[in-house]
Amino acid sequence: MSFLWICGMIPIDSLMYFAFGWYIGNIMPGPVGQKRPWNFPITITYWKQLFGAQCKQSENLVRSKEQDKHNEGYTHQRQNTCLPFIEDGVSLVSISKLYSNNLIAVKDLSFNFYNNEITSILGSNGAGKTTILSMLSSLYLPTSGKIFVNGRDMQTELMAIRKEIGVCPQYDVLFDYLTVKEHLMLFGALKIPSWTKNKLEREVEEALQEVGLLEHQKKLTCSLSGGMKRRLSVATAFIADAKTVILDEPTSGVDPCSQRFIWNILQKHRKDRTIIFTTHDMDEADYLSDRIVIIQQGRLKCYGSPSSFKEKYTQGYELILTKQAHFTNATQVTSLVQDCIPTVFLRENSSTQLVYEIPGKVDVMMFQNLFLKLDKNLHALHISGYGITNTTMEQVFLQLLQDGKRTLTQQTVLDVDIADYKSNNSNENNNCNYTVKSKKNMQRIQLYLLQISASLIYNFHHTRRDWKGSLANLVLPILFVTMAMGMFNLKPLSFDHPPLKLSSDLYSNEQALFFR
């Protein structure tokens, strides 16, 4: 085999290994990524997806925003049918997610995220909010169901969808030794490679100015504060004209000033975009959201606009009276308020204020009479001011979660076996029915595998912490063996010895034969 033949085989082997790795990476992507069938290279849909060709969707699946208005404020008991996808926005059609440890993170969700609107997803910790956003950003694939983004099916047109999606994860995924400007340049070039350098720099400069980081554009990311890093993550999500923006708790861990700054960014960029975000701040959801989705234990609890929530789940009003320094008599104030509104009752009497709760719906004329009497008797009652508030989103959220917990306690808690978790995809909307059974006991071989994996993880972390000792154990034996082998291969010093004369005197036996 000649040297030229070897040089020619090196690039051929490289291409073969690359093709093999590409194929294995697609059919076995691991926990993150889209798993493809074994014959995907010979399918037409894969090459259409690769080159951005849009598949035609059936006309009977299109649903307008007006047709969905009657579902505002409904709870999961009314979710009997799946909502078809919409052409402008994001549609979830009976999606479910089952993890390998038999945990149902999301079960049979169907609702729409509309264009030109901001939709917030609310729920307690572990409700499945981050899992939903991970499936929307194609980080995870749903176990069953379909996701449509601007009329495209995520399973068949993933490459085209990824060009229109911007994601801000829950934790900042930034490079410590890149500057602020270099981050936006990188993300913009990855999303739209066809942009020229001048156009990309103009877009980056505009984005930096909008998030207030123009004067910090040459700073390394590791030197930024937490609020600045969060603003940079939001800017990377909006860069390159992203039509669908997904934000996972964008204001978590930031100061009120940065929080208000991010709110203004979302309000400014809502036009021609579908913005989806999660939050634990009810005031933030109430201020920003056109629609709110409440998730509880992976299921849809409620869906609608903030006004529809407050109208349906109203708990009445709160009347707050602020005391003066020499306030003494709360009974007199209570009697005055109850004369105007008999159903009112005192809920809180603190050192600075009185809080009255007005349950149910009250006639507007009662409020008018109450306010007139309070205005006349403020000084006599030693009250400096008063105010009235409606039901807040926090009260609605707590009420819905408490109702859900009471419902769950009345049901039998069942564990799910992955072998019995099956979907029925016979109809056009890919509806799924699950069979739930009791979880089987862990088999002995599974316990052994669990012990082996735990031992490997322990050894890995032990080696990572004591890397110097591990490196010495690995390098020193190799070094000593190499030195020993080298010493054996050393040749002794050569000396010039005089020639020996061949004669019979060299041998003890006198008889010697010589042959010529």
Total count of helical runs of at least 4 residues: 16
CATH class of the largest domain: Alpha Beta
Q: pLDDT average, as an integer?
A: 77
Radius of gyration: 36 Å
Can you tell me about this structure?
With 516 residues, this protein is of the alpha/beta class. The protein has three domains: 3-50; 61-311, P-loop containing nucleotide triphosphate hydrolases (Rossmann fold); 316-390, 2-Layer Sandwich (Alpha-Beta Plaits), CATH 3.30.70.250. Helices cover 39% and strands 17% of the residues. It is built from 16 helices and 15 strands. The strands form three sheets. Strands 1-11-10-4-9-8-7 form a seven-stranded mixed beta sheet, sandwiched between helices. A hairpin with a 2-residue loop joins strand 5 and strand 6. It is elongated. The chain starts with a helix and ends in a 28-residue tail after the last helix. The model is unreliable at 54-67, 74-85 and 408-440 (pLDDT under 50).
